[in-house]
Amino acid sequence: MASAALGTQVAAAALAPVGSDGFLKGPSLKGNNSLNFRSKPCVGKSLSWEKTQQSRHLNKVFCMSVQQASKSKVAVKPVELENAKEPSLNLYKPKEPYTATIVSVERLVGPKAPGETCHIVIDHGGNVPYWEGQSYGVIPPGENPKKPGSPNTVRLYSIASTRYGDSFDGKTASLCVRRAVYYDPETGKEDPSKKGICSNFLCDSKPGDKVQITGPSGKIMLLPEDDPNATHIMIATGTGVAPYRGYLRRMFMEDVPTYKFGGLAWLFLGVANSDSLLYDEEFTNYLQQYPDNFRYDKALSREQKNKNGGKMYVQDKIEEYSDEIFKLLDGGAHIYFCGLKGMMPGIQDTLKRVAEQRGESWDQKLSQLKKNKQWHVEVY
Ligand code: FAD
């Protein structure tokens, strides 16, 4: 399992120009039982970081050259993937899914995370092209327990890679999947007979396994690219970070000839604790490389306290920065929400309260944001 992922990593590293941050190319992996790319000899990370540190004390010319070097992006292919005017939609349907192959499955979270989330790379051979922000459907093998004799139904998963995939060749898609487990409310014990079918199938799959996929689907979370200098405020809980990983790789990691991002991307990520953070190393590296274009705020509900002494949720972070967020929205920023359905009521209450404190009507503001296509929600 790990070696296949490393294979992807090595192949990706071979594509990278000299001076690029090779360590960025895989997910940031945690946990004892999984391969950790940080422990492998990797091009770029310590080199560019140390150089940046040293260069603070050296002359400006040297400093600039180091910054240039650490900002090198990764070449992608085939660039024809940029040519379509519209994203593909439902190329493969539940009755005739595409049979793809699992490349790798890696645990993303550390030992203290409640639950398990995996990064799953799927080889679609370039046959199921998608755009950042779209989803794939997965049909788990077996019979639908609610309809004996019929196959299992499709489950949707946001794609966590760019259209070029983690190996930058347009042949793979990555998913960020949380294993659904069931705890008996009376005993508090896990009941494996009621565990989630598809998420467990995906998290337990092995390199080479076949997986039936449908899609791609969804347009609401597409990254609007008409203005490369736009502001994108991205709010996620848990696996809701998936589409944003794709956006951010496109903005900061890949060398896409027709898309040069010069705006602001601001990610708010809510998870339980620091071991539950997803792709943290990738995001932290963008902060170091693109401090003017990227902001990253984390809400760790079980580790941090909000201003009232309660648990820190994403809406508390939103409140902390509400003045800036409202100004950015007034200036045309896009705002995205992705993750569990339960995140929305708390966020909407906070935004409404803040709007009222500012003497604005939230209902009016929200309908304006929707009308302007600035408001993007995908919760499940
Ligand atoms: P299911 O088998 O469908 O079960 C659902 C839940 O019911 C589970 O929690 C299970 O434990 C519980 N359950 C099973 N049997 C019983 C019973 N007898 N009594 C009570 N409870 C029971 N998920 C991600 O992880 N990552 C993503 O990026 C992602 N993106 C999504 C994007 C969209 C647009 C949508 C709509 C959903 C997305 N999801 C994502 C959610 C995903 O589609 C699945 O719903 C999720 O993985 C659970 O599916 P499952 O087959 O594992 O669980």
From TrEMBL:
Q: Which reaction does it catalyse?
A: 2 reduced [2Fe-2S]-[ferredoxin] + NADP(+) + H(+) = 2 oxidized [2Fe-2S]-[ferredoxin] + NADPH
- Domain named FAD-binding FR-type is located at 95-223
* Enzyme Commission number(s) of this protein: 1.18.1.2
Residues recorded as binding NADP(+), renumbered to this chain, are 158, 178, 239, 301-302, 311, 339-340, 378
| Pathway in which this enzyme or protein is active | Energy metabolism; photosynthesis
Cellular localization per UniProt: Plastid, Chloroplast
The molecule here is called Ferredoxin--NADP reductase, chloroplastic
Which species does this protein come from? Answer: Panicum miliaceum (Proso millet)
Lineage summary:
Eukaryota, Viridiplantae, Streptophyta, Embryophyta, Tracheophyta
